[in-house]
């Protein structure tokens, strides 16, 4: 359900960029996230699509407040608990993420989960300009500050400018952080792919999909901040479980995305070696 209907000012314009925000139990973080997006300075119109996934901690009330205050920017979708689907026996918010993609009207999509935020008011303009100058590119990513459990920031993810082809990135499973990604809104094949409802995590399969459809621009400007959220779904998993999920991901990516046996075996061998070093040796 789209809060306030489809007669808002933002619904009457054609945005160039759609910013997707998925949020659940982010009462302490969502305001910072939305403020950082609203502060973007651009010479084009953009919409903010917020998918609120039936939180019980007050997140929904904050999202409603922002939607009422910014009807010229925000389209809020209030998901229901029964919308959630099960992956490997566990209820997850994948429906919310996928529906946000379906709602995007822009030529490009940017992404920021509700517990992360942007730290550069020129992020969207920077990436838009780079993508427009390089039409063969499908994805543009920047550097991201990664908060450690100690509160410190990790080393940069991206430190040089580059434009790489799918062939050059064939053996690369992931680059940057999803909070910095900016990509073409060419998502129909992705949304139809069964892997979106099977994979334990979505950002890895999304990266594989995007890198296979065009070049990837990496630029060293730091534009986003990944927050170490102790209550985030990823943080609640054990190290061993995360590692086992990577085996599952490798198989699903092979079956549904690249169909390259040599690449599958290469990744499987690497994961097996890492498993041995971490849990057996």
UniProtKB/TrEMBL annotation:
Stored Gene3D superfamilies: Spore Coat Polysaccharide Biosynthesis Protein SpsA, Chain A
Pfam families: Glycos_transf_2 (PF00535)
UniProt-listed SUPFAM superfamilies: Nucleotide-diphospho-sugar transferases
Gene Ontology terms for molecular function: hexosyltransferase activity
Tree of life domain: Bacteria
Coiled coil location: none
Domain Glycosyltransferase 2-like span(s) in chain numbering: 18-154
PANTHER family recorded: GLYCOSYLTRANSFERASE (PTHR22916), UDP-GLCNAC:BETAGAL BETA-1,3-N-ACETYLGLUCOSAMINYLTRANSFERASE-LIKE PROTEIN 1 (PTHR22916:SF3)
Protein name in the entry: Glycosyltransferase
Species name: Indibacter alkaliphilus (strain CCUG 57479 / KCTC 22604 / LW1)
């Amino acid at each position: 359900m789209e809060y306030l209907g489809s007669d808002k000012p933002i619904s009457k314009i054609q945005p160039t960029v759609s910013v997707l925000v998925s949020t659940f139990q982010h009462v302490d973080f969502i305001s910072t996230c939305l403020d950082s997006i609203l502060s973007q300075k651009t010479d084009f119109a953009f919409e903010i699509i917020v998918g609120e996934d039936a939180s019980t901690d007050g997140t929904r009330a904050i999202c409603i407040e922002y939607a009422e205050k910014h009807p010229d920017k925000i389209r809020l979708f209030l998901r229901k608990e029964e919308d959630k689907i099960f992956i490997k026996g566990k209820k997850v918010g994948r429906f919310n993420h996928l529906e946000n993609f379906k709602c995007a009207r822009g030529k490009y999509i940017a992404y920021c989960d509700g517990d992360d935020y942007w730290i550069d008011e020129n992020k969207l303009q920077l990436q838009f300009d780079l993508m427009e100058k390089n039409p063969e590119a499908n994805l543009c990513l920047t550097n991201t500050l990664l908060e450690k459990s100690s509160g410190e920031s990790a080393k940069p993810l991206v430190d040089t400018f580059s434009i790489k082809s799918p062939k050059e990135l064939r053996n690369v499973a992931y680059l940057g952080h999803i909070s910095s990604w900016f990509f073409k809104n060419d998502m129909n094949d992705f949304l139809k792919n069964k892997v979106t409802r099977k994979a334990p995590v979505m950002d890895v399969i999304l990266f594989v999909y995007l890198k296979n459809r065009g070049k990837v621009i990496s630029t060293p400007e730091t534009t986003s901040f990944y927050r170490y959220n102790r209550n985030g779904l990823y943080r609640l998993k054990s190290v061993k479980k995360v590692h086992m999920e990577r085996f599952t991901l490798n198989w699903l990516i092979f079956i549904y995305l690249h169909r390259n046996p040599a690449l599958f075996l290469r990744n499987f061998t690497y994961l097996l070696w890492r498993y041995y070093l971490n849990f057996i040796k």
